[in-house]
């Protein structure tokens, strides 16, 4: 009996499960699940490809899927300006990262007011997949329940103090957010939810926290190299 990786619902057979993915989670699917759903939808009556030129079209589509899959899951989702990431971060940076064992990974309703033990949070109860925050540089606060789901997906979330961030830091954070946009390895920058933050920048991943008083791109990239794409829900690195 397959269970849905996205919402936990159980199904009696694989066909029912794939119908559910196509109807309810099409926008959240990873590359492998997208191919499974596409194959399922193409196997029904009247849905198969005719022989001849359509086979060539199918091969071209498959090649495009492979390129996208490799780019988003193995190529770093980076542009030339953002560059690529090594498999791990520099020890001088990672040795300073705080590890905070997860308090919970429970999904709660969107109207739940979650009282996180530490701010900004690195784990805890959070909203469902449909409320995960997408990649981007945000100038307004985003719901913490959505951000926690994003780091569970493997995102890096950088909280910044909007009162002190210099233009150079904003430009770099925006570049990273525009370059790392994969569903399971995204980069998000948001204003801090803390009224009087102890640090100008707080870098977070699932169960991980690192603070910076001054913006340092090398530190951000080392943190990303170690943790982006390695969330507990689906690791893609």
Please describe what this structure looks like.
The protein is α/β, with parallel strands linked by helices and 237 residues long. The chain has seven helices and seven strands, in the order ααααββαβαββββα. The chain has helices spanning 14-24, 31-42, 53-73, 91-94, 144-152, 167-179, 217-227, and strands at 98-99, 136-137, 156-160, 181-182, 185-191, 201-205, 208-212. Strands 1, 2, 3, 4, 5, 6 and 7 form a seven-stranded mixed beta sheet that branches.
Short summary:
The chain is of the alpha/beta class. Helices cover 34% and strands 12% of the residues.
Distance between the termini: 28 Å
Residues in helices, as a percent range: 25-40%
- Largest sheet: number of strands, sense, barrel closure: 7 strands, mixed
What is the oligomeric state here?
single chain
N-to-C SSE string, H for helix and E for strand: HHHHEEHEHEEEEH
SS element count, helices: 7
Overall pLDDT score: 84
Q: Which strand-content bin applies to the residues? A: 5-15%
Task: Provide the gyration radius in Å.
Answer: 20 Å
Give the number of domains. 2
Q: Find the count of extended strands (DSSP E, 2+ residues).
A: 7
User: What overall form do the CA principal axes indicate?
Assistant: globular
